[in-house]
Specification:
Blueprint: E1 2-9, E2 17-23, E3 26-33, E4 52-61, E5 66-71, E6 82-84, E7 95-98, E8 100-101, E9 108-109, H1 111-122, E10 127-132
Parallel strand pairs: 1-10, 6-7
Antiparallel strand pairs: 1-2, 2-3, 3-7, 4-5, 4-10, 8-9
């Protein structure tokens, strides 16, 4: 089974970037990333990856000691993962997932539950790609 993820971002505000993650066209959860910065102004571990299309693999993360989705393609060397977390300090340049968000747009919640549910979907896929816009 092929799985297509779409991350639709909102404009960066309050030190982070919120978005919605869809799986094969259906809303799945909220996302939180670092601030989107112009090319040439990247701050390592504090900048969202550029919009685009990326292949995704499932790999064991030494930091989290569990299987996580890892983005490939142009950002493979940056070690970008999709993982649990609640706020900008948890991102480290990666994409966080959660089932709930605060109206103030600076945190997401139910992150562990969203991550586990996402992994349940991804582990059954033969190919996975992520489009960020």
């Amino acid at each position: 089974m092929n799985l297509h993820l779409l991350l639709a971002r909102h404009p960066s505000a309050n030190g982070c970037t919120l978005g919605e993650l869809s799986l094969n066209g259906k809303f799945f959860c909220y996302t939180l990333e670092d601030v989107v910065r112009p090319a040439g102004q990247v701050v390592a571990g504090e900048t969202a990856i550029p919009a685009g299309r990326y292949p995704v693999t499932i790999e064991r993360s030494p930091s989290f000691r569990l299987l996580t989705p890892r983005l490939g393609g142009a950002v493979a060397s940056r070690g970008i993962l999709i993982h649990p977390g609640n706020g900008p300090k948890d991102t480290r340049g990666c994409i966080l997932v959660g089932f709930a968000k605060l109206p103030s747009n600076i945190k997401i919640y139910q992150s562990q539950e969203a991550f586990q549910a996402l992994m349940g979907q991804l582990l059954d896929a033969t190919t996975i790609d992520l489009t960020i816009r």
